[in-house]
Every structure is written in C-alpha cells, then in structure tokens.
Amino acid sequence: MTAQHRRAIVIIAGDYVKANVLQLALLLPMVASVAICQETKLSDSCDLSIFTDRDTKSFLAFDKELRAAIRKQDPVAMAFLVKFPLRVNSNTGKYSLDDPAALESHFQEVFPQAVRNAVLNQDPAQFMCRDQGVMYGNGEVWVNIAKFGFAIEVVNLETSASGKVPKRGIEFTCQTDRYRIVIDLDASRVSRYREWNRPHPLTDNPDLEFAKGKSSFEGAGLCSYPVWTFTNHQAAYRVEGLGCFGDAEPGPPKDAKGRLVIFLAGQEKSSEWCY
Known about the structure:
alpha+beta; Nuclear Transport Factor 2, Chain: A; 16 strands; about 35% strand
C-alpha cells in the first residue's frame, strides 16, 4: 500500500468518526428531552421526581395491578401491593396490619366500598402527589415508593364507609393536667365531647359536654392525623391526634398522644398535650 493510499484511508476514517460524533451530539439532547418529559410526569399535579427515581411506566404498571386487585377484592394480589405494616386510620382510632394473613382477615374492613371507589374512580390524569406519596381520591389511599416499585402505605377510612363501626363507640380519650376527656359516637354516629375537671370523679356528670362535633383528617400519608372540632357559642374546642413535626417545630413530650386546643372568640386561649 502506497503512502498516498494510507493518507486517503486516514482521511476517510476521520470523516467517518466526525460524522458519527456529530450525529451523537445531535441525538443526545433529544434523548434527554424525551426522558425528562416522559419518565416522571404522572399528571399536571404529580411529578414522581419529587420523592422517587421511579418513572411513570413503573407507577402505571402498579396502578393497573391495584385496580384489578380492588375490582376482584383479591387479598393475595393485594399482599404484593401494600407495604407492611400497613397503617389504617379511622375515626375510631388507628391500627396496623402487620402481615398478609392480617390483611386477608381484615380485607373488607380496610377496603370497603368507599375506598374501592376512590381507587377505581381515580382519573389517571388527575393524580396528585406530595412528599408523602401519590394520593387516590381525597386521600383514602396513599402510595409510596417500595423496594420493587410502589406500594400502598396508608389507608384512611371514614366511619360511615367502613361498615364495621358500632352505633356507639369510643373514638378518643385524652387526659391533661386539668381535664379528663372522652370523645365517642352517639346513636347517630356523631362525635360527642365530654369533659371532667380534675379532681372531679368520673361518677359525676361531666363538667362540659358538646352534643355534636365534626371529625376529619389533616396532614397526608404517614403524617395524617384525626381532628375533632366542637363549638358552643364563642368557644371552640379542638382535639388533635399526633401528626408529624418538622425539625424546626417542638415535638410532643414523651407518651403524648394528642393535643387539646381551646379558642375563645376565634383566638387561641390555651393548648395542652393529651396523654
């Protein structure tokens, strides 16, 4: 091979490399753009990148299996779609299901019709997510990242939806330095507040009673907690369970399980921890 031939081959090879480098340079931004736009944007209100590196394909595969398990009411399939211990919040308290056997035993209680509807009626284009996870419905079900994809972490029940709540029942008890308090359901399943001032015995009539109150959940995901509100003329009594506290917030004292906040004329008068 002559020197002229060798120079020609080098020039051709160089041009080939330059052409491929140019094609790669043009292609990379397009690939990156597709990845950014399609991989994590689940809806206008939910970008999975805020709490996970999982993509929409992974979540939608989970969603398809979840809807099928809910539709068939299949505890075996659901055992692969929840994260144990599964936290369950209801107006009568909170508890956890620790394993698949517990899930199977309490399946109808934890996934009543209202919760099933929240999953099945969820518009995929209307998912909302926060740091705590992806929300179905109005927060009945919260889903978060798991080892092999996604899993249900929290179920929030309404007393009217569970179908397991007795006509009467204790919802919450609270003891402060000054009061002993019980919140229970009356015959109409409406929350009632009764309070005994210390040191009055429980055998006496309550020192204060509210016949009707409102109950709800605040917070999201694992940080959700029950709240009861009772009003009487200028006074409002708010009883809260424990949610989550940030680094800048003073956390509850040891053994506390809630808080009583009293308002007069819309202004906070006092706040006490419940035990």
